[in-house]
Design a protein that fits this description.
This protein has helices at 4-21, 30-40, 47-59, 66-84, 101-105, 107-126, 133-147, 153-163, 170-180, 182-196, 200-227, 230-233, 239-242, 248-252, 254-271, 280-291; strands at 94-95, 98-99. By secondary structure, it is mostly helical. The two termini are 16 Å apart. It has one domain (4-291): Farnesyl Diphosphate Synthase (Orthogonal Bundle). The protein is globular, with a radius of gyration of 18 Å. The relative contact order is 0.13. A hairpin with a 2-residue loop joins β1 and β2. Strands 1-2 form a two-stranded antiparallel sheet.
């Protein structure tokens, strides 16, 4: 199991890299940089950057500086949370245990803060030091596709919105979450593999792992929304049912959803066999994702 000491160390590594790439609050215009940093440094598990870094370490050919590339994933993820919380989307007041961005800075600044984090993510990848142009281009293309409208994060968000009040079917559920949550989690390990110079076989293994972990992550997220409190989650519990979202418990029930999460976890572990001991932390992260309580 992932140790608390390891998690703390990796979060500190990611946070230090984020601090370097995000403009400080004293940089003009101050208001936008304050809003960006408010949500970015509000806590969070940093799962996506850690998956990226550990994928690079599993490949092992080029690891130095991977935490900077991993920042792009957290920038995209945080932008998506800011926009998800807006009144036009999920209309939420709480995120990571704090008032949501638009509650503090207003809707206009929250929209711009999300936009700014999104664009900064691609600037970070385009300017990666010590990485050849072909690799930088591949990283940018990978993250853009995972964030976009063709089976990417935005595609999933659109389906999620359009699915409200519709019958919760397995087909609709799969279409939403493989794109909304799974695409960026899969891209996390793929970015790490591309950064480190993975072979086609290694990249295929990382992709299979990412697909399984991504699905397991969403199943657990749906379960936590039902079973945990707002205080534990750091966000409003019970929102899925309130908004008639298509979720795993709504389609399959709690017991079957737990079984499915365990099944995806086992398949994720099996995907990593070609890496041997170098993938130990990827195994640990998969366990952490499925067994977390927030």
């Amino acid at each position: 199991m992932t140790s608390p000491e390891y998690l703390k160390e990796q979060i500190q590594l990611v946070d230090a890299a984020l601090d370097r790439v995000v403009p400080v609050e004293t940089e003009s215009p101050h208001s936008i940089h304050k809003a960006m940093r408010y949500s970015l440094f509000a806590g969070g598990k940093r799962v996506r950057p850690m998956l990226c870094m550990e994928a690079a370490r599993a490949v092992g050919l080029r690891v130095a500086g991977v935490e900077t590339a991993a920042c792009a994933l957290e920038l995209i993820h945080t932008y998506s949370l800011i926009h998800d919380d807006l009144p036009a989307l999920d209309n939420d007041d709480l995120r990571r245990g704090r008032p949501t961005n638009h509650k503090v800075f207003g809707e206009a600044m929250a929209i711009l803060a999300g936009d700014s984090l999104l664009t900064l993510a691609f600037q970070v990848l385009a300017q990666l030091p010590g990485v050849d142009g072909g690799t930088r281009a591949a990283l940018v293309a990978e993250l853009a596709a995972a964030s976009g409208t063709v089976e990417g994060m935005i595609a999933g968000q659109v389906r999620d919105i359009e699915g409200e009040k519709l019958e919760p079917t397995p087909e609709r559920l799969d279409a939403i979450h493989r794109a909304k949550t799974g695409a960026l989690l899969t891209a996390s390990v793929r970015l790490g593999g591309l950064y480190a110079g993975a072979t086609e076989e290694q990249l295929a293994a990382l992709t299979a792992y990412g697909n399984r972990v991504g699905l397991a992550f969403q199943i657990v997220d749906d379960l936590l929304d039902v079973e945990e409190s707002s205080a534990t989650l750091g966000k409003t519990a019970g929102k899925d049912a309130e908004q008639s979202k298509i979720t795993f418990p709504a389609v399959y029930g709690l017991a079957e959803s737990r079984r499915m999460a365990a099944e995806e976890l086992g398949a994720a572990h099996a995907s990593l066999l070609i890496f041997g001991e170098r993938a130990a932390r990827l195994h640990d992260l998969a366990d952490f994702i499925v067994r977390r309580k927030a």
